[in-house]
Amino acid sequence: MRLHVVPDRAAAGAVAAREIAREVRTHPDLVLGVATGSTPVTTWAALAACGLDLTRVRAFALDEYLDIPDGHPESYSAVVEREIVRPLGLDPARVRTPGDDGKDAGAPERYERDIAAAGGVHLQILGIGRNGHIAFNEPGSSLASPCRVTRLAAQTRRDNARFFASLDDVPTHCITQGIGTILRARRLVLLAFGAQKADAVAAALEGPVTSTVPGSALQLHPDVTVILDGEAAAGLAHSETVLAGGPIPFPAPRVASPSP
Ligand code: F6R
Known about the structure:
The protein is of the alpha/beta class. It contains eight helices and ten strands. It has helices spanning 9-26, 41-50, 76-88, 107-117, 154-160, 179-183, 198-206, 230-233; strands spanning 2-6, 31-34, 58-61, 63-65, 95-96, 123-126, 148-151, 173-176, 187-192, 224-229.
């Protein structure tokens, strides 16, 4: 796990965008996993500013509300179109959200199959909920869970009420990639900002691996980059050793001092 603690969201977005841009330069048809919500906003802005040709990139969103009217501006298909596809110049035909081919009982399995058919996600951008969720895998989700229909936790609905007119308008159900689906991505990049995420970040990165903290599943993945601001990193106890960014340099051999 590589950890970057940066001054603010803009700096975090620049680091994440650099990671994505580096991958796109070597794989122009990269399969990118995209998160919605507030966290990745600066990543998309920094990536758009790179001016890279992203027309061959394929993208799969993590999740989508189920009980939301088609075309609702806060549906994740609308958010992805507005905040990711248009500013980045992605080809809409290469961008998917769960249930975009029909919100029927077969949708989760089809989405899982379509990700696999695309060769799997190469680089997955993730945020984390205050309750430790990744995508909409709420506490209690199996660490091997596939793409599926599930309920939103009460806390997630309260947190996301800021995007809706009232709490009653926040959907109750969603289609989400599972934790198992996310763990199959080749690279994971997790971003988190603000003091309200500090407990979830510490529990996910340094606590026991448990379905009670879905984000703790990241400890099972061999290629994770974590980008935090100082507030989100404040609960980490081992950030200088276990999690410190980049490979630890091999120490130069000690030269034995001649015996007196
Ligand atoms: C969004 C998603 C969620 C968010 C998380 C953090 O697609 O999957 O897991 O990443 O709820 O939300 P923000 O970024 O709004 O704090």
